[in-house]
Amino acid sequence: MTTQPPSAPSLRGAVDLSALRTPQPAADPAVPAGAPASNAPGAPHGAEGGSWVILDADPSLLQQLVQLSAQVPVLFHLHVPGDEVSEALSTQFAEAVDAQAGRLVMARLDVAAEPQVLAAFGLGAGPAVVAVVAGQPVPLVNQEVPAETLDRLLGELFEVARQNGVAGQVPAVAPARAAGGDAAPAAPTVPARHRPAHDALAAGDLPGAVAAWQAALDESPADDVARQGLAAAQLMLRTQDADAAAVRTAAAEAPDDVAAQTAVADLDVLGGHVEDAFARLVRFVAAHPGEDRDAARAHLVELYTVVGGDDPRVQASRRKLAAALF
Questions:
Q1: Are residues 291 and 246 in the same domain?
Q2: 146 and 209 share a domain?
Q3: Ramachandran category for residue 42: left, alpha or beta (phi over 0 → left; psi -120 to 50 → alpha)
Q4: What's the rounded Cα separation, in Å, for the pair 229 and 182?
Q5: 144 plus 249 within the same structural domain
Q6: SS3 for 324?
Q7: How far apart are CA 208 and CA 195, in angstroms?
Q8: More confident call, 216 vs 10
């Protein structure tokens, strides 16, 4: 275990979470889609209040958290309850994460109760804090460090993330923490109309999240947070069962097939390769007139919404798209 992340932008290795997937329970017809459960990651920038630390996260959220690492670095605190070092790490990192106000997220996982989580990260014991950037692990620390060291580590982590195309910001994913570090349930984390979407994501109900974001947008058509949330949930839904190798092979074999090209662009955005996704679809728009051009342009605009209109990569791609169209 190192005390700092690698300084090079190239990340190696992968977090194998396949063994941690849990089957989704059958839908209860008495419970409508998007019924409240708990807050979860995956929503767009703009929510107010709350915390970016998920205390006592359920392992069933791991896949969603790894997906979220395409937008912001996600820290996993592999926690051993009652261990003095682990408790210190929890407090230190929770404060540091919340101070960043959405530039990264942390999930605390009880590895005493869920030892398989350690195996997923290639570790034999906890506690530890590991970051994941664009789906790839970046080991951080296994003990409390001085404040200036933590600041340096986070600075290096943000640089690694930036060089890998991960430089977003997300809203609070949990209730605000009390002074002692526990959640304060009374503190609202998101506007009321957004809560069903967050809760559906927490339950692993992507169709429910899509429906809830759509309902929020219908209620308030000027709600940019709901618009971004809807686009992100739709992206997650249409890629959840994708075979990445098959999608990329199909795109390589059919460069003129708009569906094949938009499918691989979706995977690129999820994987943090935002500029590659945008460039692919701009090239397609430039080379294909007619309905296929319109379909590719519309899909690209939706991906702009997922990434965020104020992102410089979106602004640069919009200029290139305008040139391709006119």
A1: yes
A2: no
A3: left
A4: 27
A5: no
A6: helix
A7: 12
A8: 216
Within a domain: residue 225? yes
Name the token pair of 241.
């069962």
Tokens of 87: 């408790």
Cβ 264 vs Cβ 237: under 8 Å: no
Give the pLDDT mean for 211-235: 89
Give the whole-angstrom CA distance, residue 53 versus residue 99: 11
Q: How many CB atoms lie within 10 A of CB 118?
A: 17
Question: What does DSSP say about strands 53-54 and 136-141: parallel, antiparallel, or unpaired?
Answer: unpaired
Q: Model confidence over 147-182: pLDDT tens digits? A: 878 888 888 888 888 877 788 888 888 887 765 555
Q: Are strands 53-54 and 74-79 parallel, antiparallel or unpaired?
A: unpaired
Token pair of 271, please? 């994987």
In-domain check, residue 260: yes
Q: Is residue 223 part of a domain?
A: yes
- Token pair 């407090």 is found at 91
SS3 106: strand
Considering Cα of 205, then 208, then 210, then 212, what sign does the dihedral take? negative
1 Cβ partners below 8 Å, 6+ apart? 123, 128, 139, 141, 142
Tokens 């991906």, residue located: 303
Q: Is the pLDDT of residue 209 over 70?
A: yes
What domain range is 129 assigned to?
36-163
Structure tokens at 127: 């506690």
